[in-house]
Amino acid sequence: MLRVHFTAEDFARTRFATRPAPLQELHAALATAVARSGGPLFAQWRGRVLRSLPAASGPLADLVPGGRPPSFLDVLGDTLADGFERIRATGPALVRSELERVYGATAAPRWIHGLHAGDEAAWHTLRRAQQTAYETVLAPVWSVVQDLHREQFSHYALTAAEHGVAAALTGLAPGSRLHEGVWEWPGAAPAREVRLDGRGLVLLPTFHHPAGPLLQDVPGRPAVLTYPAGAGLPPAAGNPVASAEALAAVLGRTRLHALRLLAEPHTTTSLARALHVSNATASSLAAALRSAGMATTTRTGRSVTHRRTALGTLVAGARPR
User: Fold this and answer.
1) Eight-class DSSP state of 303
2) pTM here?
């Protein structure tokens, strides 16, 4: 059983990751492939992944000789580059202690010794391994992962707004309960007691690891709980045009176009010009998006400026770069 101890400050600092983390999702996918978790539904996907991984990704296996990777790989980041930078920024003491924990008395490959010593060539080997593995495993389905993450984000936000954080937490983990400040998740292995002590908790869905929660508990950082989400199958590459068509059917093509234009600030006149509509129509479109919480309008003198909100960005399907 996983037991996460919250203080009042931790509840205030609990949040949902606004975007998926490429490296975290990659590590979850590789763990599922190697551990053969997920049952027969994952068998075809697992075989395809293991056959297609390039040799350059091989060093990643060296980091998990006992099945548990070093904690400095557990980073959030909206992009691969961001994730790489966060890993490389790990303090040398933590890198050394984690590699010593992972390997113990076992002889480590030479490049692992390079990580231990801070050798840039060794860090380049790690980065290239993660990059090639990402391109093989996740790049073909990353737009689908982003869409699924937005659905989870919206569901969590609505549940928390309507019923509170406790209902949102227990809703993410069927069978779990929150009792006297302790979130209990039965069946999670290995059994763990985690005390947040004011650091807060970041919730991150994964769509490639159906076997239970993954919890990163690094001193001095917010704890990150990666929980299984989705339909229980690894995402398959979809048709982005179909996704756009579905979104247009809900919002209407002109509203969707306006929402995407508002990634940059627009006055009513410039929005009307870009949409090839009248100023009155542009003002009405902006008002509709504003009433749904997807846009804001600010007035300066006689001029008004419209721009997209964070919710609008998520709905529009913008991709972080």
Assistant:
1) E
2) 0.71
Tens digits of residue pLDDT in 209-224: 887 788 888 778 889 9
Residue 97: other Cβ atoms inside 10 A: 14
Residue 199, CA distances (Å) to 113, 195, 196, 223 in order: 32, 9, 5, 7
Question: Which secondary structure element, helix H or strand E, spans residue 130, and what is its range?
Answer: helix 120-137
User: In terms of C-beta density within 10 A (0-12 exposed, 13-18 middle, 19 or more buried), how is residue 106 classed?
Assistant: exposed
Token representation of residue 75? 């980073």
Neighbouring residues of 31: CB distance < 8 A, sequence distance ≥ 6: 37, 209, 214
State the CATH class of domain 240-316. Answer: mainly alpha
User: pLDDT digits over 226-274, tens only?
Assistant: 988 876 678 876 545 445 666 677 788 899 999 999 989 999 999 999 9
- pLDDT value for 120: 93
What are the residue boundaries of the structural domains of the chain, listed by start? Answer: 2-228, 240-316
